[in-house]
Amino acid sequence: MGQLSRLAGTVRPGGRTARVRAAVLEATQDELVEHGFHGLTMDQVAARAGVGKTTVYRRWGSRAGLVVDLMNELANQSMPHADTGGIEGDLRANALSVLGALTDGRLGATFQAVVAAATCDEQAAEALRAFHLRRLEEWVGVVDLAVKRGELPEGTHAAEMIRAISAPLYYRLVVTREPVTPAVAERSVVRTLAAARAGAFVEPVE
User: Fold this and answer.
1) pTM value?
2) Which is the most buried residue in 55, 86, 123, 201, by most CB within 10 A?
3) Is 76 exposed, middle or buried (0-12, 13-18, 19+ CB in 10 A)?
4) What domains can you pick out in the chain, each with its CATH number?
């Protein structure tokens, strides 16, 4: 997961529709950061984006619809997986990417707001799941390559290994509210890699 603190740079040449979407998504993120999901209103997003309320209601339908589109855009703009030539370097790059996103004042607040929303809104939960599945799909290849290079055991479950890297970071951000630091990210990499080399992520044969 890479860093994206502003959506303005995502506007592509091609007309008003792209500009409107970028303005609305940036306004949505601003409102999430400042007021959380429950303080997010369609009218305020429209006013902040300088877009007619009718346009926002017609295109996005609800605040959950805004969050779904925002998370989709964040996934689109996240950095691709690393290719350092070795699994340790690749996993460290993944951990630092997650760390950078979670400690960014704007992105970290965005994720906290969406995680909170996901506990009570199914559309928000689906948006969060889709975001993380997109990021998992991007990074599982580094584990598969490591297996082919003989760095990890055959049958290593790539997605579970990538999840294990980021899980302690999200736990601190959302549950215990402890600092998410480079040392935490490094320990997550070291422990996950040691477990993987010991076969902890190998899928059992049924």
Assistant:
1) 0.76
2) 201
3) exposed
4) 8-74 (1.10.357.10), 81-197 (1.10.357.10)
